Amino acid sequence: CCLSLTAALILTACSSGGGGVAADIGAGLADALTAPLDHKDKSLQSLTLDQSVRKNEKLKLAAQGAEKTYGNGDSLNTGKLKNDKVSRFDFIRQIEVDGQLITLESGEFQIYKQDHSAVVALQIEKINNPDKIDSLINQRSFLVSGLGGEHTAFNQLPDGKAEYHGKAFSSDDAGGKLTYTIDFAAKQGHGKIEHLKTPEQNVELAAAELKADEKHHAVILGDTRYGSEEKGTYHLALFGDRAQEIAGRATVDKGKGSRQIGIAGKQ
Fold first, then answer.
1. Domains of the chain with CATH codes
2. Residue limits of the Factor H binding protein-like C-terminal domain (predicted)?
């Protein structure tokens, strides 16, 4: 039941089918770090952290008084996390050099989970000080670092059209809405992001081709537009045996850099 999608952060996900602030999540955050895997849990049960934790690295997650350190290939128990919410953990990523643990970066590790898929993002607050290796400096960035779930095979797409509704979230803003329509006969999709606080992040997801990636998974790669101006790109993967869900990321160019947005929705 395990599948993965190559990204900056590779996640492998298992499922049984089937924006909030910390107070909205309940005990699930601590349970994700301390409870054993429970196959009675509905929806996505686990994510295996692969390249997010490279060899010699450690990823420490903490929430609600619980903490756990993950190494390369360890699994995060997502079965206890609420669906359709952004679950948030404090994170520290470290590497061991000559017997000394050096912190590479710290901030907030975010997961938006659905029944068949999940989007992971890192709100990085501090990074290693290049001038003083055992200290950190403030430098904020937001990275949509991976997707995981039960991918939809391109040769098993349903007929007709489907409309998806869900979440768009970016740095300090989990209030965005995603609307996306896929025409399976025409092999094409388009949509929009709304209600993010930064106006130019509320972009159109321009019409783009639904196609197979190198693993024969159904994906869509297209452009983001603000007004008539091309602003960046978006990437969506389809999830579930009947393409019940979509998840991915959008980028919006701004000045010398670009802003990333996590996006996910369901029929």
1. 3-149 (2.60.40.1980), 154-266 (2.40.160.90)
2. 156-250
